[in-house]
Structure formats: C-alpha cells, structure tokens
Write a structure and sequence with these properties.
globular, Rot1, mainly beta, about 10% helix, 3 helices, 13 strands, eleven-stranded antiparallel β-sheet, two-stranded antiparallel sheet
C-alpha cells in the first residue's frame, strides 16, 4: 500500500481543498478557545502603566496602602486598580462592597492590596504571582462585632486573557484595559491613568518567617 503522504500528494488541488475543509469541520469547535486566552494579542500598547476603573478613586500606590504603618486610606468610592511594569512587576488595589440579602443594612467593605511578579504567557493569558507575606486586606462589616482589622492576604491570580483599546474617557483619548478572570468573566474596564505606573517598591517588603521565632 502506498504511503499516505504519496496518496495525498497525488490528489488534485480542488479535491485536496475539499479534504482539508472536511477535516476542519469535524474538529471540536472549542479547541482554539481552550488553547488560547481571551482577547486580541495584537494590543495597541503595552501593559505598562496604572489602570483604574471609573473615576479612578482607587489607584495603586502609597495613597491607597501604607506598608510602613500597615494602614489603608479609604477612597471616595469603590473600584479596582492594577499596575504593571514592562519588566514583569504588578500591583493591585481593590475596594469592594458586598451586601447580605437577609440583612440589607449589613454592608461590608473589603480593601485589598498586594504586589509581585507577573508572566505574560504566549497564549495571551497572565499569571500574577504575589510576594508572599506582603499582601494585606481590611474588612469593614457594619454588623460584625470585630471589624476593620488588617489581615495578611496572598492570592495568586490567573487572568484568562486581556485586551487593550484606544477610546475617549472624559472627553480625552485614553487607553483602556479589559482583564478576563480565570473563568472568562470580564473585570470592569480600567483606564490608563499613569504611565510610568504609580506603584510601591517592586520588591518584597516583609520577610516571611516559618515556624516559631525562637524555635530550634
């Protein structure tokens, strides 16, 4: 029996095209989506900069979190902000609200700050690795007995893709960033408000100690 490559090579061009089309139609429709992240990899600018939602009341940097005193400054309104550098560092500032349906008056607010290194993968996804021991969160719950306590926070984030576009924001041309979470859910649109980014030092700020301080 002749090798398959010889048989394929002997086919007329028109018939070979039909074979290619037939093979492509039986491939699962989601194969490409499973191997490539969401978004267009040919973005109009780099990730570098500070990106923030809405009126940008929440912005990364010292005005949101002070690592020396380990205190947060409450922004005027809720929002999200991410900063990226071209050499692989990132920072996150989140101010989130949540409500309890059974107790509508019990509104809780969560402040989150962390930073670390990121990897821009070849399939247009992002891996955000935090510096362990540096991240902090503060939860304010109007109905809780204990509230407004600053706690350690470390959460790796996997973004299933991103897009950057140019549009108009408050009457001025501006870039905006769309991040997609690990499950494909889009985050709120973030506008580039600083470039270079406004960030705290891109290095680990707290030493991680394992075990007891005076342990053997």
């Amino acid at each position: 029996m002749a090798p398959l490559s010889r048989l394929v090579g002997a086919l007329p061009a028109s018939l070979l095209a039909l074979v290619v089309v037939a093979i492509s139609t039986v491939l699962p429709a989601g194969v490409h989506a499973q191997t490539f992240g969401i978004g267009d990899p040919n973005n109009v600018t780099s990730l570098s900069g500070t990106w923030c939602t809405g009126a940008c009341h929440v912005v990364t940097g010292l005005q949101f979190y002070n690592p020396i005193s380990e205190t947060f400054t409450y922004p005027l309104s809720a929002g999200q902000s991410y900063s990226f550098t071209d050499d692989g560092f990132w920072e996150q500032a989140l101010y989130l609200y949540s409500t309890n349906p059974s107790q509508p008056n019990c509104v809780s607010a969560q402040l989150i700050w962390q930073h670390g290194t990121y990897t821009l993968n070849s399939n247009n996804t992002l891996t955000l690795n935090p510096f362990k021991g540096d991240g902090r969160q503060q939860i304010s719950d109007y109905c809780a007995q204990v509230s407004n306590v600053v706690q350690s926070y470390t959460q790796k984030e996997d973004m299933n893709g991103f897009e950057i576009h140019l549009d108009t924001h408050y009457g001025q041309p501006a870039y905006y960033l769309k991040l997609y979470e690990f499950d494909g859910a889009p985050k709120p649109i973030m506008w580039q408000t600083y470039n270079p980014p406004q960030m705290l030092p891109t290095e680990q700020l707290h030493q991680v100690v394992i075990g007891e301080l005076n342990g053997a």
